[in-house]
Design brief:
This protein is of the alpha/beta class. It is about 45% helix and about 15% strand. It folds into two domains: about 190 residues, Alpha-Beta Complex (2-enoyl-CoA Hydratase, Chain A, domain 1); about 50 residues, Lyase 2-enoyl-coa Hydratase, Chain  A, domain 2, CATH 1.10.12. The strands form two sheets. Strands 1-2-3-5-7-10 form a six-stranded mixed sheet, with helices on both faces. It has a four-stranded mixed sheet with strand order 4-6-8-9. Strand 2, helix 1 and strand 3 form a beta-alpha-beta unit. Helix 6 crosses helix 7 and helix 10 runs antiparallel to helix 11. The structure holds octanoyl-coenzyme A.
């Protein structure tokens, strides 16, 4: 197995575990990840995923050994990397906990998550140009939307990796955390996300994601419709009643 799966209450931690290839993202690793995550994604008892790697490396990217001999026709017919769209589309919130390097597909995998936290040791890069190719798992699109065109071009055209501080300032990560506290703090945040109503969390992340794709008017309409629909959930009644009663709300009890 190339992944380890642990459950901590309402949080599922998926840890990439392919040390010999520095967590290179082979098709087998992707299939194992999705097979583990797919059933949990629609399980109301799971409210958040954490995606982690090793201490020194999150992932060295796509598996170069797996793809190096492929022809363009094979890549096209296999629709190589399309399988990762399913990972990005999982609806349960996903937090990436990046320690060490996240290069190529590793950086792209982190960007497919809803929140990225990283350790001070983290480095992010899109070095595909050094291999004679370019990012192929969403890097040209997600990185540009997250950090802007100029830095995205700098990283993609020169292959330069950025450190945790630059990633924070650029908006690629939400928090930089001391290496020895990364998992603890990430788990704390994941437990907090998972403690709220899952329906509200699914709707909120879906609406935020729409902001990357829709114009303002359509995005706001999408948000308003999702907000209105949440009034059909028990968690909305619980959350608002608890506020009025001046007591903490308890969610996810349907
Ligand atoms: N794929 C396969 N194997 C890898 C990869 C990888 N991406 N990265 C490392 N490995 C393997 C090495 O070959 C080595 O194997 P072995 O022990 O059998 O020789 C083992 O992992 C250890 O590697 P290192 O000794 O180099 O480990 P370090 O921790 O010292 O260094 C580095 C790690 C700096 C990450 C270095 O290994 C490296 O530069 N790796 C390649 C990084 C890279 O270029 N990533 C981008 C890959 S391409 C991609 O992600 C998207 C491509 C888009 C294509 C679009 C198609 C549609």
């Amino acid at each position: 197995m190339y992944i380890d799966l642990e459950r901590h209450g309402r949080v599922a931690v998926v840890r990439l575990n392919r040390p010999k290839a520095r967590n290179a993202l082979s098709s087998k690793l992707r299939q194992e990840m999705l097979a583990a995550m797919r059933p949990l994604d629609c399980d109301p008892a799971i409210g958040c995923f954490v995606i982690a790697g090793a201490e020194r490396y999150f992932s060295a990217g796509a598996d170069i050994a797996e793809m190096h001999a492929k022809t363009a026709l094979q890549m096209y017919h296999d629709d190589f990397f399309a399988g990762w769209d399913e990972f990005a589309a999982l609806r349960t919130p996903k937090i990436a906990a990046v320690s060490g390097y996240a290069y190529g597909g590793g950086c792209e995998l982190a960007m497919m998550c809803d929140i990225v936290y990283c350790a001070q040791s983290a480095r992010f890069g899109q070095p595909e140009i050094e291999l004679g190719v370019m990012p192929g798992m969403g890097g040209t699109q997600r990185l540009t939307k997250l950090v802007g065109k100029s830095l995205a071009m700098d990283m993609i055209l020169t292959g330069r990796a950025i450190d945790a501080t630059e990633a924070l300032h650029a908006g690629l990560v939400a928090r930089v955390i001391a290496d020895d506290r990364l998992m603890r703090e990430t788990l704390d945040a994941a437990h907090r996300v998972a403690s709220f109503g899952k329906t509200a969390a699914l709707a909120a992340r879906e609406a935020v994601d729409r902001s990357l794709e829709l114009g303002l008017r359509e995005g706001i309409l999408f948000e308003r419709r999702a907000f209105q629909a949440l009034f059909g959930t028990a968690d909305q009644k619980r959350g608002m009643q608890a506020f009025l009663d001046k007591r903490p709300a308890v969610f996810n009890e349907d």
